[in-house]
Amino acid sequence: MRLALKIDVDTHQGLRDGVPRLMRLLRDHQLPATFFIAMGPDNSGRAVMRAFRNPGFLTKMRRTRAVSMYGWRTILSGTLLPARPIALAFPDLLRDLAATFEVGIHGYDHVLWQDHIDDLSDADLRAELAEAAEAYRAIFATSPRSFAAPGWRVSPAAMRALERLGLDYRSDTRGRCPYRCRVDGEVLRTPEIPTTLPTLDEVLGTPELAAAPSLADFYLRRMSEDLLNVHTIHAETEGLAHFDAFAECLATLRARGVEFLRLDQVAAGLHAAELPLAEVVRATLPGRAGWISAQAPDPLQPCSI
Ligand SMILES: [Zn+2]
């Protein structure tokens, strides 16, 4: 079975504390992975304050141990305390990371993109992407080649703005297999490699996970033998409060013969003309608040990769 690990980094604390631990763990196992970094300010406190108004939020806070996972500094960042930079606060760490792993961008202002994508004008969207690319170039002296949308949220306008960057691929949606996005009748050139597995915070506390012999067994049951599996983890979750569980899961997957890949390796092997076409639709997932962007089902466009 083939598995690409996609590691999203949403916050200053996630980059400072979670990424070094994940980097050491993956290096110890000699496993490849792709990190996507939010390049701009850490306004995660705003997301938490907004989330407080959602029904069921406090239950989820308890279920996922959000305070121990994020810490109060992150929860208040951008609200009572000033927003801290994320990527630009740790350029040396990121260059060290990029020596072994693929590093792409996870938006500029993660909270603004995730919460307000439909309020952003075309110019606003282009500005977010330009700021993210500029911060990336300031750190790596090269342009970003990949993008993962904050909160798996895109819009037709955002996808058109992303298309102008000429990236090697995007990983913005949830779905079944790599595809080409059809947006208002136009087929985009940039391949989309969706996340195929549920995230840990979506499944924590579910009877299905509780019934599985281990976290690795839970994921192995969900993985496809034939198609590429893409699993998103978070520096703030698997890198911090759930690090031990993730480390054990990773060791088990490796011992059971799972082949790990980087998303840029996957993208290099894709032939765009052979990829299925799919609309990008809005959907909801068990265990996740609000909508996400998803690969629309289409029986006439079967997966082959
Ligand atoms: Zn994120």
What is the compact description of this entry?
Helix content is 42%, strand content 18%. It contains 14 helices and 13 strands.
Write the layout of secondary structure elements.
Elements lengths: L1 E8 L2 H18 L4 E4 L3 E2 L1 H8 L5 H7 L2 H11 L7 E2 L5 H10 L1 E4 L4 H7 L5 H19 L5 E2 L8 H8 L5 E2 L8 E5 L2 E7 L7 H4 L3 H5 L3 H8 L6 E6 L2 H5 L1 H13 L3 E3 L1 H6 L8 E7 L8 E4 L10
Parallel strand pairs: 1-2, 1-10, 1-11, 2-5, 6-7, 8-12
Antiparallel strand pairs: 3-4, 8-9, 12-13
Helix pairs in contact: 1-13, 2-4, 7-8, 11-13
Largest sheet: 5 strands, parallel
CATH topology grouping: TIM Barrel
DSSP helix count? 14
State which percent range the strand residues make up.
15-25%
Proportion of helical residues: 40-55%
Q: Return Rg in Å.
A: 18 Å
Gross morphology: globular
How many strand elements? 13
CATH architecture: Alpha-Beta Barrel
Ligand inventory reads: zinc ion
Q: CATH superfamily, called what?
A: Glycoside hydrolase/deacetylase
Can you put this structure into words, describing what you see?
The protein has 305 residues and is of the alpha/beta class. It has a single domain (2-295), classed as TIM Barrel (Alpha-Beta Barrel). Helices cover 42% and strands 18% of the residues. The protein contains 14 helices and 13 strands. It has helices spanning 12-29, 44-51, 57-63, 66-76, 91-100, 110-116, 122-140, 156-163, 200-203, 207-211, 215-222, 237-241, 243-255, 263-268, and strands spanning 2-9, 34-37, 41-42, 84-85, 102-105, 146-147, 169-170, 179-183, 186-192, 229-234, 259-261, 277-283, 292-295. Strands 1, 2, 5, 10 and 11 form a 5-stranded parallel beta sheet that branches. The chain has a 4-stranded mixed beta sheet with strand order 9-8-12-13, with helices on one face. Helix 2 (44-51) crosses helix 4 and helix 11 crosses helix 13 (243-255). The radius of gyration is 18 Å and the shape is globular. It starts with a strand and ends in a 10-residue tail after the last strand. The protein binds zinc ion (ZN). Residues 8, 10, 106, 110, 150 line the site of zinc ion. Zinc ion is lined by residues 8, 10, 106, 110, 150.
